[in-house]
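Quick check before the chapter quiz. The format below is the same one you will see on the exam, so make sure you can read both the input and the output lines.
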Amino acid sequence: MKLKQLEGLLGSLQQFETPKIELEQYPTGPHIASRLLYTAENSFGDVSDKVVADFGCGCGTLGLAAGLLGAEHVIGFDIDAESIEIASLNADELELDMDFIQCDIRNLRLSDRAIDTVVMNPPFGTRKKGADMDFLSMALKVASGAVYSLHKTTTRDHIKRTALREYNASSAEVLSELRFDVPQLYKFHKKKEVDVAVDLWRFVPNNNRPKHL
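Here is the expected output.
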């Protein structure tokens, strides 16, 4: 599937009608979502025939993009039942099988690393400090292959240092810098739309290092 085709399909998905500010619910736009998954598949082979988890899946954009690119199995995790309901409708619309689990990511218990790749657009941590790092910490415990995540460019040094020193990542690489369009969703937003600079990261968990004989 070509990038433009993927972006077009994702652009037709239903998004939040009444987003919850306490969960920092912002839709992942088709431009960013398509590039994240397209890069994961075409540069690294981390999607096709893999088990992919979408952390904080919201309306399912990233996970469904993984399904469109040939993931073997996709699981969306979100704390919000309404988001999962929308994501399920989106999956039906695209005729994709995607499982959903309602849970708090911080309390996730997945011990056997059955998930190959985690994709996520975590909360930026502006409402609840450290929320983005809670997601990253869990993703690196769960994934056996790679973690793809979006984080504010202003946090780049902190993200890299923490991932390598505290979260046992064997590598942490910024693949590209993108513009995240934050639409005027909440009353406190003064502008119609704001562009936020975000980094597209690829992290490799430490268990993926080759063993020395």
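If your answer matched, good. The helical segments are 3-10, 30-42, 61-68, 81-94, 131-142, 156-165.
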